[in-house]
Write a structure and sequence with these properties.
The chain is mostly helical and about 425 residues long. Helix content is about 50%, strand content about 10%. The strands form five sheets. It has a three-stranded antiparallel beta sheet with strand order 3-11-10, with no helix packed on it. A three-stranded antiparallel beta sheet has the order 4-8-7, with helices on one face. It has a two-stranded antiparallel ribbon with strand order 1-2. A hairpin with a 7-residue loop joins strand 5 and strand 6. It is globular and about 65 Å long.
């Protein structure tokens, strides 16, 4: 990492990372295992707590009832990290601590029992910002409640917590409130190949990366291992940026989320120009306002997996008030995506491919290539076309996905390997 990247002071942003040499798009810049990580609570029963693979037949830890594993091998490999956590989880049953509490506890365990050198890190945990001084009192109060939960959670395993923190942790990490604030501001969401959340982790050096709504780098995961890749050509001395948030939203909403969660105002070119806001709000407001107002209820249906009601509601809205709203409208696109999701879960393949194909030209506009979100959506639609034996269409869509994902994920990523296999299947079925 040090040969191509260096830490520097980015004007108006604090520390950052910049290139020391010219970098080509698609180049792998950095890979790292996390300092600590944990599977998200919402997928705790479906994802292995060791390798982060998804599986419907996982083995459950008989003690804490929380951790799940692919097999005995994964369970044994995880034991060094899980054994202290296991006792903490048992002490709180049937309550389950939040992701941030579990992750912070794992970080504390890692700091109390260091097994590897942090000499290669460009940014230590001690240097991470907590941003407590710039937080609202309401947010501080919320973090204080998490800190209290963390203290209760750790009691079983670290009875002399205050003494241990004071004697063995860096100065800025000795107060639980400071530490959990650092973690919530600097941790990364771990996603699967299709960019769905499966966990959270802390990767100290990569916390140096600053945000841009049109970044020149992306991060993808294999298990909990993170890969930083360039998606644009980068000149020597140019800053490396990633997007901290999902950028499919209006400028005002993106800026509010960044201010609330990361405590800065974004002044990137996309925010200053507000170049996609007009497209996102295209059509008559009286029409698309009905779609916007329906979204919270639809999100609730999705959260509880009520796919039938979600499908019926989306279909009705899209065929009535949504029919007169342009496909590029933000709220219609979100509705169309939910119609796609519900169609897939219900096995309505013709509906699914119809809604999926409708999103593709809009994704291309909102996620300029090469963007992993567009690439994953293309692959998703291609699989539907393939299943419906539209082989020629599927192969063409797979090719478009490959052109993007080979840059964003890399040719060796398991998702790209799967994509190449699908393309070969299509060629075989076409007799090529």
């Amino acid at each position: 990492m040090a040969s191509r990247l260096e830490r520097f002071v980015s004007p108006g942003k604090g520390y950052g990372l910049r290139a020391t040499t010219g970098i080509k798009r698609g180049q792998l810049l950095f890979s790292s295992e996390p300092m600590a990580s944990c599977v998200s609570n919402k997928v705790a029963k479906d994802v292995c707590h060791r390798c982060f693979a998804q599986n419907n037949t996982l083995l459950r830890c008989s003690q804490c009832k929380m951790a799940h594993y692919c097999n005995i091998t994964c369970q044994k490999q995880a034991w060094s990290d899980h054994k202290r956590e296991c006792k903490c989880l048992q002490s709180l049953l049937p309550r389950i601590p939040t992701n941030s509490v579990r992750l912070t506890a794992r970080i504390i365990f890692a700091l109390l029992t260091p097994v590897k050198s942090c000499s290669e890190e460009l940014y230590t945990l001690d240097e991470h910002e907590s941003h407590l001084t710039s937080m609202s009192e309401q947010k501080k109060q919320g973090l204080s409640q998490l800190a209290s939960m963390l203290e209760l959670y750790l009691q079983q395993e670290v009875p002399d917590l205050a003494q241990e923190l004071t004697s063995r942790l860096p100065q800025s990490c000795r107060q639980l409130l400071d530490l959990i604030a650092k973690v919530t501001c600097n941790c990364f969401t771990i996603s699967d190949g299709e960019l769905q959340e499966i966990g959270v982790g802390l990767y100290p050096s990569l916390s140096l990366l600053n945000h841009d709504c049109r970044p020149n780098c992306v991060m993808v995961f294999e298990g909990a291992k993170i890969h930083l890749r360039a998606i644009l050509d980068i000149k020597p001395g140019e800053e490396l940026t990633i997007s901290y948030i999902e950028t499919l939203s209006l400028t005002e909403e993106r800026q509010k989320q960044l201010e609330d969660q990361y405590h800065f105002t974004c002044r990137c070119q996309k925010c200053d120009s507000q170049d996609t806001d007009c497209l996102m709000l295209s059509g008559e407001e009286e029409r698309w306002l009905h779609l916007k107002e329906a979204l919270p209820k639809l999100e609730e249906l999705k959260a509880v997996s009520d796919w039938r009601t979600l499908f019926d509601s989306c279909t009705l809205l899209l065929s009535t008030v949504g029919a007169d709203v342009p496909d590029g409208n933000l709220y219609k696109l979100q509705l169309t995506d939910m119609a796609l999701d519900s169609s897939i879960h219900l096995g309505h393949w013709e509906d699914a491919v119809k809604y999926g194909e409708r999103t593709l030209p809009i994704y291309r506009q909102y996620y300029p290539d090469p963007h992993p979100v567009h690439g994953v959506q293309l692959m998703r639609v291609a699989k539907l076309q393939h299943y419906l034996e539209r082989i020629k269409d599927a192969l063409e869509t797979y090719k478009q996905a490959f052109a993007i994902l080979q840059i964003t994920h890399g040719i060796d990523h398991s998702l790209v390997a799967d994509l190449l296999d699908k393309m070969e299947e299509c060629r075989f079925e076409m007799g090529q």
